[in-house]
């Protein structure tokens, strides 16, 4: 089904040149768009990419939007219905039918009615047209508000869904990392833990304050040359790491 959006003007492609439209009419529409804040007759667009669209109907409204953007830089988006690719042909047919009904030839009764005097038309037109126009505007505004509400709800639903997916993946990664860390042997931990994780592991082994920071850096620097092949190798190549401290670390890490 068609969806109602606010679409970035820069993402819309229009095949009909601007020169085919009346300049003054475009300018008038642009100022009206700025005043009302929206197009009461939204564009009808076909999505040609993730953030690109082609105009099916509403070229004049598009150029009014572009002109409004030139006048007021805050105008960057226009109201539009986005049609799915498989519904474009049906949308075009509907547009043609609606256009045809608006431009169809007058009936005999209509021709007869046109013979009314100018004074009669002058007297009756204002009385009937104002309420009708107000009703139409109210219906359009209600329709647009409803579509905007549904659009906002769709966005909120997507955000909730995406956040759930992100939370699930983060928990999954955390579980995998925790599982991998718990399976490491003490010697492997000296060789494979990141600096942050090594710092945390040494802290759990009771290495205090400044000694903890220095020892972490010394181990990281020592293993850059080559991996440790034994605990004796760790002690001999790591500055300020003695046998007693090593035994304390091994004892703690063996219980992880």
Let me know the CATH homologous superfamily of the largest domain. Conserved hypothetical protein from pyrococcus furiosus pfu- 392566-001, ParB domain
Number of helix segments? 10
Strand order of the largest sheet: 1-5-3-4-2
The CATH class of the largest domain is identified as Alpha Beta
Q: Give the percentage of residues in beta strands.
A: 5-15%
| Structural classification | alpha/beta
Order of helices and strands: EEHEEHEHHHHHHHH
Unreliable runs = 102-132
Number of distinct beta strands: 5
Radius of gyration: 36 Å
What is the CATH topology descriptor of the largest domain?
Answer: Conserved hypothetical protein from pyrococcus furiosus pfu- 392566-001, ParB domain
Largest sheet features:
5 strands, mixed
Principal-axis shape equals: rod-shaped
Helix content: 55-70%
Give the number of domains.
3
Mean pLDDT: 79
Q: Can you tell me the CATH architecture of the largest domain?
A: Alpha-Beta Complex
The CA-CA distance between the termini, in Å, is 56 Å
InterPro entries: ParB/Sulfiredoxin_sf (IPR036086)
